[in-house]
Design goal:
By secondary structure, the protein is an alpha/beta fold. The protein is about 45% helix and about 15% strand. It has 12 helices and 11 strands. It is globular. About 35% of the residues are buried.
Length: about 300
């Protein structure tokens, strides 16, 4: 199993040297690209420093070619990976399988135990604050949510104090965290790596906000919220448009504010989407995912 898919060619060479015919499976736990609306393949900014994006893409394609099985998180990821591979003359039709990551069972709550807001909703944003995750767009929305909607917002600081070397590579998380912390109605919180504390932070919220990352192929943090029965509002893009209920998708800040306001003030609407959020993770139990994983490796 090559979890870092770029390593697959070297693994293939080692297997040949060892004289074994074992199959190689690769899991695309990230995609180093996305597709623009006009069909252009765009390197992921986090992997394109110094113009390295094309080299990373070539290495990724070489890994796809060396694998007997290729696993991706979602139908969106499968479509994009197939299209990107085709541009490099790599055929994936017979070996590509969709196997999403499992939900964490400690982060699952019966939606019957989720209380609707009483007119003011607490929202949570539990994603990395890198600029390439779309955090500037989220920050702009946060300003409007706390000013125009009956919403209080908790933003999770997932990094804490990073090393000077990491900050030098990309200072955007600290800069954007400080911008968010300066907004009235926004609280910065951290779980300090404690999963119980993380669960309690989610349990204290009413809904989640998805990342604005262009070409998002999957988000474990979205699944965390949904497993806890929290509706998640999201930009209509990438996997989010595939996975999130249509009533909770937006293409403008005006729409996002309207959806958040309705979640805060319409108890029936809220309860319906709390149940739908929880149901969206029903096929992501560890046992169900393990069965899909083993089937994909046959």
């Amino acid at each position: 199993m090559a979890n870092q898919i770029e390593a697959a060619p070297a693994i293939r060479a080692a297997l040949l040297e060892a004289g074994t015919d074992a199959l190689i499976a690769g899991y695309c736990h990230y995609l180093p690209f996305s597709f623009a609306d006009d069909g252009r393949l765009v390197p992921d900014p986090s992997l394109d420093d110094g113009g390295l994006g094309r080299s990373v893409m070539l290495a990724f394609s070489a890994g796809l070619a060396a694998c007997d099985r290729v696993l991706v998180h979602s139908s969106t990821a499968a479509s994009w990976t197939t299209a990107a591979a085709a541009r490099m003359s790599v055929e994936l039709t017979e070996k590509l399988h969709v196997v999403p990551a499992p939900r964490e069972e400690r982060l699952v709550r019966d939606p019957a135990d989720v209380a609707a807001p009483d007119g003011t909703a607490h929202a949570v944003y539990n994603h990395r604050l890198y600029a390439h995750y779309g955090t500037p767009a989220f920050t702009a929305l946060a300003r409007r949510l706390v000013a125009e909607a009956p919403v209080q917002l908790t933003v999770m600081d997932l990094f804490g104090t990073r090393s000077p070397e990491r900050v030098r590579l990309d200072p955007s998380p600290e800069r954007l965290r400080d911008e968010l912390a300066a907004l009235d109605g926004v609280t910065i919180a951290t779980d300090r790596g404690d999963r119980v504390r993380y669960r309690n932070l989610l349990a204290g919220a009413h809904f989640g906000i998805a990342p604005f990352r262009p070409g998002c192929p999957w988000s474990m943090s979205v699944i965390d919220c949904q497993g806890m029965g929290l509706p998640v509002i999201a930009p209509r893009t990438g996997w989010l448009a595939e996975h999130i209920d249509d009533d909770l998708l937006f293409t403008s800040a005006d729409q996002a504010v309207a959806i958040a306001t309705r979640l805060a003030t319409d108890g029936e609407f809220y309860q319906v989407h709390a149940k739908r959020a929880h149901a969206a993770t029903a096929d992501l139990t560890p046992a169900a995912v393990a069965a899909r994983y083993l089937e994909a490796l046959r």
